[in-house]
Amino acid sequence: xxxxxIPVIVVVVCGLVASILLVVASKVFAVPVDQRVSEVRDVLxxxxxxxxxxxxxxxxxxxVVNDESVSCSACTVGGAACAAKIAEILGRDAGSADPMxxxxxxxxxxxxxxxxxxxxxxxxxxxxxxxxxxxxxCRYGCMGLGDCVNACQFGAIGIVDxxxxxDRDQCVACGACVRECPQGIIKLVPKKSEVFVLCxxxxxxxxxxxxxxxxxxxCGKCAKVCKFEAITVExxxxxxxxxxCKNCGMCLKECPTGAINSYNVKHARNAIRFKEKAxxxxxxxxxxxxxxxxxxxxxxxxxxxxxxx
Length: 309
Hints:
Strand order of the largest sheet: 1-4
Mean pLDDT: 86
CATH topology of the largest domain: Alpha-Beta Plaits
Radius of gyration: 32 Å
Largest sheet: 2 strands, antiparallel
Number of helices: 11
Structural class: alpha+beta
CATH class of the largest domain: Alpha Beta
Shape: elongated
Helix content: 40-55%
């Protein structure tokens, strides 16, 4: 019996000593945990989307508590309400940030863009891009196979007429679609911005027009008409500076291809009426010129009156 008891006693004593050492080590090497980290984590939505610029909600909670330079309003999913709660926990100013939304800078619909092949492979933009840079003649445009749709956790993006479209009411600006797009044509923009150049082509105007009816040809008319110097033409493409743009809509009226679009219905209607008026005036001028030419031709053919004897 003693032969069994001795090993048992040794094991028990070793376990007891080990447990005592672990308790001591846990006290000596304990890392203080700020209770506020848990409190902040509880108010975060838990999407772990990375839209705040951190690895996830846990990482953001730890960073915002331990680093005062990290904004309380970085969580785009939680929005202003979440920022206010975090600020209350930390005793800071919630700060303010313009609400953002994703914007697809392309309007190359199935009808407007020229297709060079029919894709029957896997339904992935990244996969299709490995073959001839996509299905369209324009190598900069939306491929419309839905990688961004699959990446969005909030159902804020879909494919309409071959182009990805964002529902601004559902978008939380997490940036998942921005990171997923192999073309790099999805950007986060301020929600207050209403006017956009829905094209990303850097080809020369003639080639862009050949590839897509809705493409920007870099003519610069929009830049000339803008009173706020908010538009520049870079690499054959008009670019709008949202910080300078006043959403006046003048550039929509001037754009000859319709590459500039607006979320403001009034802007869109005005642009349509302006273009209809311009088309009517051009048709009237053409008809007047044709009538004048016809009258001149008829006058030339008319026989001269005989001279009196």
